[in-house]
């Protein structure tokens, strides 16, 4: 799934309980900025991958609202792409391996 518009960016994966045929959502932005994601009305357990200019700059964990209350995560620096993946899933996005097993590195704050 791809979110390109401000409306799609705002809605994201809210209110979705199961993803069928997808492992997550890619958020494409026209500018670079520090991005903030939250889990309001989110039922899925997600990893958030922060990407700038094709370079992975960080990763965050975003629990479901019902598990942890409202949680807000922010990119460690300005980014132009964000990928939300279901916990436990991995994928390649434009040659970058996005995987919960990745350890350390600049900007990583995953649990």
Looking at the overall shape, the CATH architecture is Sandwich
The biggest beta sheet, please? Answer: 5 strands, mixed
N/C terminus separation:
24 Å
Q: Flag low-confidence runs.
A: 104-111
CATH class: Mainly Beta
Q: Classify the fold: give the CATH topology.
A: Jelly Rolls
Strand ordering within the main sheet: 1-2-7-4-5
Mass-distribution shape: globular
Number of domains: 1
The helix count comes to 2
Mean pLDDT: 83
Radius of gyration: 13 Å
The CATH homologous superfamily corresponds to Protein of unknown function DUF192
Query: Could you tell me the strand content as a percent range?
Result: 35-45%
Q: What is the chain-wise order of helices and strands?
A: EHEEEEHEEEE
Helical content class: under 10%
SS-derived structural category: mainly beta
Number of strands: 9
Any key phrases for this structure?
111 residues; mainly beta; Jelly Rolls; five-stranded mixed sheet; 9 strands; 42% strand; globular; disordered C terminus
3D structure, described in words:
By secondary structure, the chain is mainly beta. The chain has a single domain, classed as Jelly Rolls (Sandwich). Helix content is about 10%, strand content about 40%. Strands 1-2-7-4-5 form a 5-stranded mixed beta sheet. A two-stranded antiparallel sheet has the order 3-6. A two-stranded antiparallel ribbon has the order 8-9. A hairpin with a 2-residue loop joins strand 4 and strand 5 (about 55-60). It is globular, with a radius of gyration of 13 Å. The model is unreliable at about 105-110 (pLDDT under 50).
């Amino acid at each position: 799934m791809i979110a390109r518009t401000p409306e799609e960016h705002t809605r994201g994966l809210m209110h979705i309980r199961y993803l069928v045929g997808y492992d997550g959502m890619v958020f494409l932005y026209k500018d670079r900025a520090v991005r903030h994601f939250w889990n309001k009305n989110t039922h899925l357990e997600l990893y958030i991958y922060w990407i700038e200019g094709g370079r992975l700059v960080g990763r965050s964990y975003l629990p479901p609202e019902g598990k942890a209350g409202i949680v807000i995560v922010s990119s460690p620096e300005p980014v132009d792409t964000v990928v939300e993946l279901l916990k436990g899933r991995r994928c390649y996005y434009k040659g970058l391996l996005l995987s919960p097993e990745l350890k350390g590195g600049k900007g990583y704050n995953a649990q």
